[in-house]
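@channel sequence for tomorrow's demo:
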Amino acid sequence: LARVPRKGWRSLASSSSLNKTEGDVSSEEIPPWIVPLPSHVKIVEVGPRDGLQNEKQLIPAHAKIQLINKLSNTGLEVVESTSFVSPRWVPQMADAAEVLDGIERKKGVSYPVLCPNMKGLELAIKHNAEEIAVFSAASESFTKRNINSTIAQSLKMFEPVVAENIKVRGYVSCVLGCPYEGTIKPSAVADVSKALYDMGCYEISLGDTIGVGNPGSAVAMIRAVKEKIPVEHLAAHFHDTYGQALVNLLAALQEGVATIDSAVGGLGGCPYAKGATGNVATEDVLYMLAGLGVKTGVNLRHVMEAGAFVGRVLGKPTHSRVANSIWRRSAGVRVSFHYKEVLATALADGNVTGAEKALIEQYRLRHNIGGEEHQAALRSLGW
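structure tokens (generated this afternoon):
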């Protein structure tokens, strides 16, 4: 330890990845065995809208407001808040106006809302929405059952909405499979995505609505869309029905996609896709990205706390494997002594590498080791 420069260790000790925001490691420190990935990924939290819309029990507006406020304080840049749709079709979103009026809007955080038509847009603007989203699908059958129109009709319906002076995001559902049509051609996804992009949507979210995709189909689909839309305008929105969401996201990252939609606690499903499970859990995405050295600016522990809150409201356990594992460990035996050994090993050769920083970060996340415990371990080693 005496050979280790104090300056180098202090740099590690004070880094944002270990003391402020979970999962941030500089882009220069990405392990060499990883295919080049985006240095920063924007997380679009869709739990309050896409996550809760499928819950059968009606969640009170005050609980939704609390959830959004908690998520606003995690470092997330985007928290999709609600949906101005017919309460006859989606009863869970009947309190959209109350929710949007009641949240505490934090500077630097966007709170988009879903609007399928001009009536929804007018209500959203009335309640001070600054960003909206519209949605279509790559499947004619799904579009018919979801919004009672053809794909062409849905796109026509969105034209006056997108033409308004407001920021608009576009969703494309069933990009890797449809509950009614089965396999979806990548070219069909590319055509609908291009139509929304040409219409004026600044970003296109590609949704595996029923979670049947795999890395091979995900890459084929993204490459088809990239031929028509710049990759920086694409987002990946993958459900985890077959347990493939994280590997599909890794494939998307390797294709250059740098925006990921996810839901705290793995909330979600789809009211028009029987059997579809929730979105990929935000906690699991953050943990994966931390291990890859990709910055997000999002604090994993704070997201876990928001997930625990909504779990109590719903009376259900979290679907996040990462959150479940960390909560179990933090409730059991502390790992302070072992953590000191991990730090000492990283210091032993006098050079703390990027890979060692990433390993330490992963260890901290797995064992729920906070800043105070980290500093205590440093002091016990004489630093």
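heads up for whoever presents: The first helix runs from residue 6 to 13.
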